[in-house]
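Deliverable D5.2: sample structural annotation.
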Amino acid sequence: MNDGRKVYFQVIEYIKELVRTKQVEHGGRLPSERELMETLGLSRNSIREALRTLENMGIIESRQGKGNFLVNNMGQSLSSVFSALLLMKESSYLEVSQMRHAMELQAFFMAADRIGLQEQQEFERIIHQMRHPDPAKKNQADHQFHQMLIRCSGNRLLQIVMDALAEVCREEIAMVRADSARDDEERWLSLHEKIYRCLIAGDLKNGMRAIMEHYAWIDRGLQEIEDGGR
C-alpha cells in the first residue's frame, strides 16, 4: 500500500470524496472493482478485501450481478458487535440497559423541544397498542415507544446506536415483562404514559424521573436473569 494504511481506509476515503462531490448518493451504485483498481492503483484482491470489510461494517451492500451500493446498515453491524461482546462476557445485558438509560434521558431532553403533532399522534397509537392482550404485540409496542422517543430527539446517531442496543436485549426485556405480575404490568403502562405526557408538557424533571424509574425496574429484572433467578 502506498502510504501504509489499510486498503479499506483508502477505499473509504475515495467513497467519501465521491459523496462530497455528489458523484454518489445514499443508495447509489459505486464504481466497479475495475474502476476502483484503476483509480486507486490497487490489485483486484485488495479491492475485494476492502469491499468485503466495508460490507461487514454496513457501509456498502453487494448485490449479485448489479454491483456495490452505498447504504447505511451500520446499525446491524453495531448489533453484531454488541452481541459478540455479550457472547464473550465482555459486557452484560445490564450494562446494555444502563447505556440505553443514559441515551434515553438525553433523547428525552432533546425531544421536548422538537415533538410535533404527527409524533404525538404516533405516540398515542403506540400507547393504545400497549393495552393489547397479546404479549407479543405489547412487546412490539414497547419497542416502538422507545424508538419513537429517540427519533423525536432528531439525532440520527442516537437512533442508530439505540436501535442496535435495543435489538440485542429485546428477548431479555420480554422475559422481564413475562415474569411481571399484573400490578407490574399496570405500572409499566403508567410509566410509559407518564413519560409521554411529561414530554408533550415539557415537564423535564418528572419525565426524566419516570424514565429512571422505568429503567430501574428493567435493570432489577435483568439482574435477576443474570443471577439465575428465573
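Annotation notes: The chain has a mean pLDDT of 86. Residues 17 and 23 are 8 Å apart (CA to CA).
The annotation will be released with the project's public dataset once the embargo ends.
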